[in-house]
Design goal:
With 290 residues, the protein is an alpha/beta fold. Helix content is 46%, strand content 11%.
């Protein structure tokens, strides 16, 4: 069965799985101020691609990894400091794997005071029943994305923020070229097919090592990535990561060059996103879903 709960400031740590992570946050905690290098890059991405507009209700896809936790604190910082007003919430999809337990995020998000939606979905079980020619990773990603879209719609959020960074975009670019014969990568800002949600990626200029350094320095409660499918079968993405790391040792400007090459692909869908944002106010201004 699918499990779901959400809270403003009232849910408590008893929602942790039995035997799960026991790091409890008993008092309200203050969001961490990210380093200036991260703030500059994310601020530039928000400006370049008009990722966040006045009145937006932004729902963050929070896996518990270093990237999404870093983005959480970046969004909260800009919410406090930006000249526009926007709301921030977060959603976590728990795939119900015995080796991956993100429920430590529940008390952490409560202590931060951020609206939070924790969705339990038996993705491992569903994969064995319904996965056709997809890899497990592709099936899981599609299932999680659908759950996040559904959560955003039900609760009146008009933008979904995802935490892919420049390394992710470069790896996707190579995977698409090498295995799909296409020039494609992740987009910075686009509207979903149904036309009612925007997807934004504020970390597109950020390197993975930056989020790793920030998460470690700030003591963020990073949930270890321990998907059994990924460990049993090394992914194409990991191969691309290693390939890029080797090339960067010889060419320190590699990612700057790749960003320039990918920019037209990153911008794909931007005009439609901006037109859609101008045409409609955020759903939360009118009503909030049940």
């Amino acid at each position: 069965m699918v499990g779901v709960f959400h809270f403003g400031l009232t849910e408590s740590a008893h929602h942790l799985r039995p035997g799960g992570a026991a790091r409890i946050f008993l008092r309200m905690i203050t969001p961490v101020t990210p380093p200036k290098s991260l703030l500059r890059q994310v601020g530039r991405a928000i400006g370049d691609y008009q990722l966040i507009r006045d009145g937006d209700r932004v729902l963050l896809g929070l896996s518990g990894g270093k990237d999404s936790l870093s983005l959480l604190h970046l969004l909260l910082h800009f919410q406090r400091r930006a000249p526009i007003r926007f709301e921030v919430g977060a959603v976590t999809v728990d795939p119900q794997s015995e080796t991956f337990d993100p429920s430590v995020l529940i008390p952490y998000m409560e202590a931060l005071g951020v609206p939070y939606f924790y969705r339990r979905e038996p993705i491992l079980e569903l994969a064995t029943e319904h996965m056709d020619n997809d890899s497990y990773c592709a099936f899981c990603a599609r299932m999680k994305r659908g759950t996040m879209y559904n959560t955003a719609r039900r609760h009146g959020y008009n933008a979904l923020a995802l935490a892919q960074h420049l390394d992710d975009l470069a790896e996707s670019f190579l995977m698409s070229a090498f295995h799909g014969g296409q020039l494609k990568t992740m987009k910075a800002h686009y509207v979903v097919r149904e036309g009612d949600l925007r997807v934004i990626r504020p970390l597109i200029y950020v390197r993975e090592r930056q989020t790793a350094d920030f998460a470690q320095a700030a003591g963020l409660p990073v949930v270890a990535e321990s998907c059994p499918a990924c460990f049993d079968m090394p992914t194409q993405r990991q191969h691309m990561k290693e390939l890029l790391a080797g090339e960067e040792r010889e060419n320190p400007r590699l990612f700057k060059s790749l960003l320039t090459a990918m920019r037209p692909l990153i911008e794909d869908g931007l005009s439609e996103a901006l037109a859609g944002a101008r045409a409609a106010e955020p759903a939360g201004r009118h009503s909030k879903g049940a």
